[in-house]
Amino acid sequence: NDTLWPLCHDVISPPEFHRAWWDAYRRVNRRFAEAAAAQAAQGATVWVQDYQLQLVPALLRELRPDLRIGYFHHIPFPPLEIFAQLPWRRQVVEGLLGADLIGFQRPGDASNFIRVVRRLTDLTTRGPSITVPGPAGERQVRAGAFPISIDSSRFDAMARSESVQARAREIRRDLGDPQVLLLGVDRLDYTKGIRHRIKAYGELLEEERLTVPDTALVQVASPSRENVEAYQQLREEVEILVGRINGEHGQIGSAAIYYMHHSYPPEEMAALYLAADVMLVTALRDGMNLVAKEFVAACTDDRGVLVLSEFAGAADELSGALLINPHDIDGMKDAIERAVRMEPREMRRRMRKLRRRVMEDDVTKWSQRFLSTLTAVPRAEGR
């Protein structure tokens, strides 16, 4: 995690390169490939998921050339200039090229991969296709964007249930019935822009563009990789920042920020989404960000505003959101204030547009599109 995760997220935290870690990565990937080879039927389709298993496609093809293999990369794929730092860059590329179809979240990620192939190999590329020679003849490997989604109807149904609606009302009462409730929901990860978001909110309070108790921010920060030093440091920084802002702007019975460092079940998340007026997704880099889509799916009353980082994959699809550059704190502050003061008519128009996209393009449609594209990839002669 200290190598590939930061490498794929714009080296927000410096990656570490250790040969012992690479050896362990290879061993784990081989075990997964051998297990899949033992289980798969003749001519079966195998779908490999995410960056932890980037060597599996080639290892599996070596063991079972009869299989049709797909791979999906859930996180961003970095530009060549960043990917080139990886000491084992060529081995990773060769591992991925064992697949028939390599899926990414955004077109830019697929383009980054194609550029890496062109620079680090002698293979021929034509648009999204890469020609890969092999014992059974040439194979055409395709790279493309397949933006992932959520079980939209499930969140929609939960948000319509009486129990979740009652819980949403209860949440607002427990928070003192603020006029505007802002919400952030993230894993506690340095890629999510939590510090940037809290800093922007604190400055809005300082400048009295927002006030307590009229406004409250609920920040859910689920525990994540707590044994990693960078995450321990992030938690400390976030909690110090929250404490300072609450000390300066909170009142008896009304905090400026309600900070929760634990996870919640889906029903409670749906209630939080429903209770919120403004959802803040301020990722510095994110493959997709499904929280943004969950929020939209839960807004069954067409009420609510999504403030969304342009560096999250969801920004390509959710054009009804207010898009921000999270590094631009002043710009983020303006967007938050605009969201807070948005006229109901504009809010409903934007949310309807968002909901149409999220409800139509759900996780089932995503998987069907990927698998149908994989099935259509021509097999090499002799397979």
UniProtKB/TrEMBL annotation:
GO biological process: trehalose biosynthetic process
Highest taxon listed in the record's lineage: Bacteria
Molecular function terms, GO-annotated: alpha,alpha-trehalose-phosphate synthase (UDP-forming) activity
InterPro entries: Glyco_trans_20 (IPR001830)
SUPFAM superfamilies noted in UniProt: UDP-Glycosyltransferase/glycogen phosphorylase
PANTHER family noted in UniProt: BCDNA.GH08860, TREHALOSE-6-PHOSPHATE SYNTHASE
Record family assignment: Belongs to the glycosyltransferase 20 family.
Protein name according to UniProt: Trehalose-phosphate synthase
Native source species: Cellulomonas bogoriensis 69B4 = DSM 16987
Highest classification ranks of the organism: Bacteria, Bacillati, Actinomycetota, Actinomycetes, Micrococcales
